[in-house]
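Cont'd.
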Amino acid sequence: MKICVDLEKCQSHGQCAIAAPELFSFDAEGKLRWVKEPPVEQQATAEAAADACPEQAITIGT
Amino acid sequence: MPRVLIVGASLGGLRAAEALRDAGFHGAISSVGAEAHPPYNRPPLSKDVLLGNATSDGVLAELAFPRKARLGEIDWRLGMSVAAVDLAQGEARLADGSRIHFDALIVATGLRPRRLQLTGATADRFVLRTLPDALALRARLVPGARIAIIGGGFIGCEVAASARRRGCATTVIEPLIVPMQRALGQEFGAAMQALHEAAGIRFRTGRQVTGFEVDVSDRLHAVRLDDDSLVEADLAVEAVGSQPNTEWLAGNGFDLDDGILCDHRMAAIGHDRVAAVGDVARFPCLLFDDVPRRVEHWSIPGLTARRAAGHVARQLGVAVPDAPFAPLPTFWSDQLGLRIQCAGLPGLADRVGLLSGSLGPDSMRRDGAVMGYWRKDRQVGVAAIGVAPQRFINFQADLVRALQNCSL
Ligand SMILES: Cc1cc2nc3c(=O)[nH]c(=O)nc-3n(C[C@H](O)[C@H](O)[C@H](O)COP(=O)(O)OP(=O)(O)OC[C@H]3O[C@@H](n4cnc5c(N)ncnc54)[C@H](O)[C@@H]3O)c2cc1C
Ligand code: SF4
């Protein structure tokens, strides 16, 4: 599974980091970091983060 | 094959359909939505859409929610509203007279803007809820246009900020002491007003609108206030709150006083095969107390849809494990280039205090500010402006801990 974040769309709401802290976080400079290819067991968590993003910036692919 | 009817095809209705599939419901789903467009994201309507110049199709390309493969087959009926339902018969009547039979119903009909009960100036009065609303309003936001925004809540203030940026002479008229008072409290609201004023937006607070002054061809030239003063205006936006879309549910024994009353499973009181999601649902947020409330935040449709879909699927015989449900309302707003973030229910507070920073316009822009909200010494909310996401996440985590450590 692949997680893509469209950084043009991302407005740093941080909802993804609240929904899935194991996959999304912010570094010291406030830049979004995420696990690019998590194991499939985390599919549901990743989908929940994508759904929670107010800018719809996250897509989950295979 | 059992059929679930979802009425309302916006964020809540779409998430309910997805959640039904995720819960393992393989039966039929009919989704009836009054808007002609596929489900799209509303919050940008008062922000990017008003500031930009994209066409309707261009906006939709940006804002339509992606259709997920796991949704499978759905009987979409867009541009069609449900006129009435008869629960005893399990039947819905659509606006074109056709009928849909259903075994369970999910109510996702949201809100519509409340209108002022005043006559006149029909062509110059606007509301903002839908994409066509936004495009019609945007067409009038030309440099030099005088705009009166009636209601200084979030939508009113966002429209004000966008209109000002487009070069309009902008006045916000608000009956309370400061804008966004109900949601953020008086201190934060006053600070927001100062920020808007620094951007050139005028405020008439503590004032109600009593009439629209028009010329012989019914075109607006001023808005009359309750002290008989006039605010000159070429157009007016009515942002005075909203009204739940529940008329179509009448006659079935629901409590429709303010939205549809639900229990903590999101099941409608009195009807186990009916559930509600999103803005239209009045339900208890057990993190706070057992008082049912409607919560008009973007985060709520997604959270309530999972809960409602689990309940409905269970009613139809699907084994769905019960998960705890204590959604934390969260909210954001973008105004004048600053992000406001809010978690919990600050509106419940009897005490407010700064947790970080200070509320002057310059210091808010420089360092941000964070306010805490308490009810009977228990924290019930946090609101911030201009703080980095990770900092707000930490404040929100503190709030969740405070809420969980207190029993009802
Ligand atoms: C301009 C604007 C800006 C916003 N900004 C923010 C923000 O910054 N942050 C935030 O947290 N929230 C914001 N919100 C709130 C957020 O968009 C809502 O909470 C969310 O849209 C609620 O979704 P919903 O599906 O419950 O209801 P709605 O989106 O209201 O959807 C209900 C749907 O049901 C349809 N319908 C109604 N009656 C019928 C019927 N009888 N038959 C069939 N269909 C029917 C309607 O046409 C509509 O499409 C904003 C809202 C607006 C309007
Ligand atoms: S929720 Fe969306 S907008 Fe916010 S930080 Fe995550 S990806 Fe970016």
